[in-house]
């Protein structure tokens, strides 16, 4: 079975480098688990000593700085490739040709986001603590049960020792869940075979996975490791926040609380809606909307390769995503606040256009 | 990055291989000569428009911006492969020890960290012994003081935060171990702050014990100007001007926050050389394996019904 999946798997000849994302993510997941394992050997999930234990890793553990730099920046790269992977699936309508694979993929995205958030809390710096406080407080928006759920998640009356302990446990175990889900993702993928730029699964030409894609994937892995090396060795703190080099202090709120860059678009959407519950729903829906694409996307639609407006809409959505990411990092003041609202609407509207266009295009232009 | 990867592998952005696009479909796609231009134009307009909007919106001044951002200084260690100026680190330690250590702790630094960076092992031992460190309890259950050892952390100037606040008009002098990493602007900010004291502008009122520094958020800082020309005498004879003192202590604090700085860049350089070689070899092998498929010619031969 392994040989069938890895060596002789019939693969479309025409898939481009955009199809390298999945294997890169798999390797990166393994890399994160491995570096995380080494970090956990020196890490202490204790409110008083956590910050010092991370400094101990950076200063005293043999090559500890390297493991931490690679692990922290590996998380960022994981999201770079995750977004590219989802973007490729969206562009080539994988949600129509591979709906089950798509659904599992969106779940992996959700679990990865949770895992990254939990990991960000662990160094127990100022942004870790206040990030945990802000994000866990979102649960208080749940009608009736909100406050109880928040305290249940905290394990107390505020973000504290119990919260840190359980966050560490969950951060350790969730990557294995992601690994399991990735296995399911692959099983469903191999059921029909990979999609291709033409957008249908009636492949006219297939080649064995090995040696063609094994060599192609190896190039991808090495590009990944080069990116990791550039970040980890030369710019280890460029994606971090200076406030996280200050020990968590519940008495001092940072001037500008913001999550890591990969959550900023969702954070901007959250802030754009005045109602707390509405903001939380929009935040969840900014990702959960991907679940609805296989349901909304029509099976007989024209592939995106032959639907120019679909391609343009996709890139417009990418621009909205980038601007929302930028807005998430801006202070909460005008005109950023006013700008985020319409962009949130346009972000969600783009998905509606994406699922409607191929069918309309078929009716209007092709046939 | 993605576009660069696409170009270097001779594959246009998210484009299907032309050989596999059937002719009818090509007529209505953006892959025609004009269609491609239109697609790029629309894409460029969308990206360019977004960038212009973002830039334009970032121009106005806001309340949150009422702080003077430090300029970028040409630190010698800024280069991708540049090491820290260790003579400057050594002088910076002298500044810290003689000026900053009176109020600021560096609790994450040990005397052993100084060995072979700022001084020899013997010198570091002698340096540690100058400090009295509380240890114990002894056999009688009493705490006692002993000369410091290499493994000891730098001593804290105050017994606790409350004492530190009481001695500084309520302001708590921050620990300096990670001050460069913990402040926006890093060493540029530290240098600007140390050399940026001035009289308060008209209309700015300071409370007792506060000083004006345009680089400090809010402008009112509890720390008085600490560095003046010739406030200390460098052991290597370098003229101790204010800017020299500020530059040296900022470099020292940069090292304190990232003691692995030089090794990190060295290893990074080695890693990039190895990875470049491996990418070259692997990419060549990939091209080699694919060459048969890439260079084959497919032809449609209509069936003959004769």
Structure overview:
- Chain B: This is Cytochrome c1, heme protein, mitochondrial.
- Chain B: Pfam families: Cytochrom_C1.
- Chain A contains 14 helices and two strands; from the N terminus they run αβααααααααβααααα.
- With 367 residues, chain A is an all-alpha fold.
- A two-stranded antiparallel ribbon of chain A has the order 1-2.
- The two termini of chain A are 43 Å apart.
- Chain B is elongated.
- Chain B has a two-stranded antiparallel ribbon. In chain B, strands 3-4 form a two-stranded antiparallel ribbon.
- The N terminus of chain B is likely disordered.
- In chain B, helix 4 crosses helix 8 and helix 7 runs antiparallel to helix 8.
- Chains A and B meet through helix 3, helix 4, helix 10, helix 13 and helix 14 of A and helix 1, helix 3 and helix 9 of B.
Task: Please give the structural blueprint.
The complex is a heterodimer of chains A (367) and B (306).
Chain A: H1 2-6, E1 10-12, H2 21-40, H3 50-59, H4 64-91, H5 94-97, H6 99-121, H7 126-137, H8 146-154, H9 161-192, E2 206-208, H10 209-234, H11 264-272, H12 276-296, H13 308-329, H14 336-366
Antiparallel strand pairs in A: 1-2
Chain B: H1 2-8, H2 23-28, H3 33-58, H4 86-98, H5 121-129, E1 132-135, E2 144-147, H6 161-167, H7 186-195, E3 211-212, E4 220-221, H8 242-257, H9 261-295
Helix pairs in contact in B: 4-8, 7-8
